[in-house]
Q: What sequence folds into this?
């Protein structure tokens, strides 16, 4: 895979963003912990897991990001694009998270209303994936669990809040839909994803 990634990196051009207030690009330093041995690691179902709130971003950012990554010969996981009739939803989603190399978390205004989004985020954090956050029409300080909408035991609520707290500390993309250029954030996020995958591939080869 690394040769494919380097080919795309060579072809990529640097992007000059016209509106610095609508889109800030940074890299994250959240580390990825490899499995104890290659033989015990299940075969990867995807390269990139896209965690998002469907009602907010499925028809916009999430789908555009998925399509961009597919065009780069990567294997992204986006629930409604990847799952097939007969698939067990949670088994496939949990498996995709655990075997993915990079996770993109798309935070949006209704993200904290969804048990599924929060469960996915908690599993991403607990499995120590490299994470690229995108804050879509929401600030990191606004992230929280909407308890009246997410009905689950207190220990789960605390688990979700720990995951959100960790996410607040990871620098990512800030995007405002009324000011920003969606194609720019998708392209720039995809470029960062490719860089992270190359880094992970190099780490695996040197391990």
A:
């Amino acid at each position: 895979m690394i040769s494919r990634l380097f080919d795309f990196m060579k072809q990529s051009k640097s992007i000059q963003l016209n509106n610095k207030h609508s889109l800030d690009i940074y890299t994250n330093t959240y580390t990825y912990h490899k499995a104890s041995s290659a033989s015990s690691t299940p075969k990867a179902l995807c390269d990139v897991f896209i965690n998002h709130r469907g009602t907010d971003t499925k028809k916009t950012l999430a789908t555009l990001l998925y399509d961009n990554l597919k065009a780069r010969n990567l294997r992204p996981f986006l629930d409604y694009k990847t799952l097939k009739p007969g698939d067990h939803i949670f088994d496939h989603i949990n498996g995709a998270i655990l075997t993915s190399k990079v996770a993109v978390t798309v935070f949006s205004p209704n993200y904290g209303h969804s048990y599924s989004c929060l469960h996915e985020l908690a599993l991403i954090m607990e499995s120590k994936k490299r994470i690229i956050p995108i804050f879509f029409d929401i600030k990191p300080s606004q992230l929280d669990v909407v308890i009246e909408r997410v009905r689950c035991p207190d220990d789960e609520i605390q688990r979700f809040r720990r995951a959100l707290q960790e996410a607040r500390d990871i620098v990512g993309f800030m995007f405002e839909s009324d000011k920003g250029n969606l194609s720019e954030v998708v392209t720039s996020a995809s470029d960062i994803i490719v860089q992270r995958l190359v880094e992970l591939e190099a780490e695996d080869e040197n391990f």
Remarks:
- Residues 10-44 have pLDDT under 50 and may be disordered.
